[in-house]
Amino acid sequence: MTARIAWTYENYAALPDDGKRYEVHAGELVMTPAPGSDHQVVLMRLLQVLARHVEAHDLGLVLPAPLDVILSEDPRETTVVEPDIVYLAVDRLPTLRRRGVVGSPTLVVEILSPGTAATDRGTKRSLYARYGVPHYWIVDLDNRALESYVLRGAEYHSAVRASGASPIDVPPFVGLGLVPTSLWPPFPILP
């Protein structure tokens, strides 16, 4: 039996730029597949809505992947993730560094892909809760729904699940007026 190697941030940062995407989940190196085109359309549409709202109300900063979010640099459980979208409220802007975000953002958004859905709903959800990310959104491409979770204690609780054409507010934002159907590609994307 071979001993498990615990990945540190330094090991992770030294990985060659081989075109692959990596994360470290509690000391374990994980490769994540590149997202598909439908994922990227939704990412850009949601990013535009959030960025406009945040900038118009001077609420902080919204950033897309790729961006390292370093939740823990403890050598025994280093955790470096790359959410699809990160929101830093004004009080969390000091966590932004050149190498990424060091600490918990206000909100992370994961857009589900076939290769990442189980990880986003399981492992990453648990990691975000463990490290105190107050808000977690999952965008479910297959069901064309946005799910919003709010951290209470050590667990996420459902706040909003939306899929319609009516404008909604999604925590942590007030006055967002997000129309879920506006996120989906306006034309069919073939398999």
Q: Tell me the name of the CATH class.
A: Alpha Beta
How many extended strands? 12
The quaternary structure here is single chain
- What is the CATH H-level superfamily? tt1808, chain A
Poorly predicted regions: none
CATH topology: tt1808, chain A
Could you say which structural class the secondary elements and strand pairing correspond to? alpha+beta
Order of helices and strands: HEEHEEEEEEEHHEEE
Q: Mean of the pLDDT scores?
A: 94
Radius of gyration: 17 Å
Specify the CATH architecture. Answer: Alpha-Beta Complex
Overall body shape: globular
Strand content: 25-35%
Description:
This protein is of the alpha+beta class. The chain has a single domain (34-66, 80-183), classed as tt1808, chain A (Alpha-Beta Complex), CATH 3.90.1570. It has 4 helices and 12 strands, in the order αββαβββββββααβββ. It has helices at 9-13, 37-56, 117-121, 123-130; strands at 21-25, 28-32, 60-64, 69-72, 79-81, 85-89, 96-97, 100-102, 107-111, 135-140, 145-152, 155-162. The chain has a 6-stranded mixed beta sheet with strand order 3-6-9-10-11-12. Strands 5-4-8-7 form a 4-stranded mixed beta sheet, with helices on one face. A hairpin with a 6-residue loop joins strand 4 and strand 5 (79-81). The relative contact order is 0.14.
